[in-house]
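Private note to self, pasted from the team thread so I don't lose it. Backbone tokens:
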């Protein structure tokens, strides 16, 4: 394919290099002349400062939108109107304005539109999905998702106050930056969200004008309750999922490239004395000094930081080649995530 990359920030550069590695022709566009010229020269790409100039000069099969969140919807409408298939980084937008207009154009022109949700291609997430598909923990009751990182450490060589994540005018904040991943993961693994409540707040003293903390509770059509906490304040990054079911639990250990799990068929960790009533079983475990962490089954996975990004654009390229609109995450998935993120049921908490 011949692909136009709109946005030459960190994720745009990654997509450009990955598309090139898959033998696609790549052209880059960015309004920052110094940045796009330097990157293009280093990697032998042609470039433009305006995507209108690009699409009016050359023919493209697809475009990648990797601009700050506040500048997603307008390029998408323009490029879709020009009949380009689109791969868009999450989130779809920062509001529901013009979303229906975009949807109409994509449908009218019979385009392939994919949301960039790399967690669906993450080796650890796929490992969790495999365990769930094999019913390791029985009926799932509830899920806990915990995430967080310290924003100044994200791109530590750059001024965090200029990052899109720290600026409301660019569509930043934990809700739009991080929760768009989490909500998509919930819908993918645990069912469609049918009800939810949430809060966002600015708790810390970082120099930003967006929320740095979000807490959200969701209920899915599979009768699963999911609780999510995420922030920009965690000095040591955290990323954990715990899935509690009728026959055991699954808990991520992403830093070890492992997923841990336990179920009622596992002999270790259960006391040998079967006559013990349930209330005394846990007490017996404590008395015997059983090490909880080493008593779990483990499923290891190989992790490469770039693999999921390569896999998702390769998936997109295949859908474009096949002209197959029946896939996920598509435009509808992006819209559904935005309906949740921008809903008044997620309210802002302020102490001012």
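Design output:
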């Amino acid at each position: 394919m011949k692909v136009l990359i709109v946005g030459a920030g960190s994720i745009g550069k990654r997509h450009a290099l990955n598309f090139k590695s898959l033998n696609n022709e790549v052209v880059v566009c960015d309004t920052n002349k110094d940045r796009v010229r330097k990157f293009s020269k280093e990697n032998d790409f042609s470039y433009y400062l305006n995507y209108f100039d690009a699409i009016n000069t050359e023919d493209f099969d697809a475009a990648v939108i990797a601009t700050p969140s506040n500048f997603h919807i307008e390029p998408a409408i323009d490029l879709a109107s020009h009949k380009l298939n689109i791969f868009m980084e999450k989130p779809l937008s920062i509001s529901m304005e013009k979303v229906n207009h975009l949807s109409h154009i994509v449908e009218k022109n019979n385009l392939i539109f994919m949301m960039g949700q790399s967690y669906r291609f993450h080796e650890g997430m796929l490992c969790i999905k495999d365990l769930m598909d094999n019913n390791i923990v029985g009926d799932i009751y509830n899920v806990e998702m915990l995430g967080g990182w310290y924003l100044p450490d994200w791109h530590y060589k750059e001024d965090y106050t200029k990052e899109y994540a720290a600026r409301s005018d660019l569509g930043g904040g934990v809700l739009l930056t991080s929760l768009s991943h989490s909500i998509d993961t919930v819908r993918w693994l645990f069912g469609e969200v049918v009800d939810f409540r949430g809060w966002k707040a600015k708790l810390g003293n970082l120099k930003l004008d967006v929320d740095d903390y979000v807490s959200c509770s969701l209920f899915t059509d599979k009768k699963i309750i999911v609780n999510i906490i995420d922030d920009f304040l965690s000095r040591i990054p955290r990323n954990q999922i715990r899935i509690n079911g009728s026959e055991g639990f699954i808990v991520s250990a992403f830093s070890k490239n492992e997923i841990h799990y336990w179920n009622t068929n596992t002999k270790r960790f259960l006391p040998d004395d079967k006559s013990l009533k349930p209330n005394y079983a846990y007490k017996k475990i404590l008395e015997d000094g059983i090490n909880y962490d080493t008593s779990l089954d483990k499923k290891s996975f190989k992790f490469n930081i770039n693999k999921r990004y390569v896999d998702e654009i390769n998936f997109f390229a295949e859908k474009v080649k096949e002209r197959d609109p029946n896939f996920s995450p598509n435009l509808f998935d992006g819209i559904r995530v935005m309906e949740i993120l921008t809903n008044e049921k997620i309210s802002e908490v302020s102490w001012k």
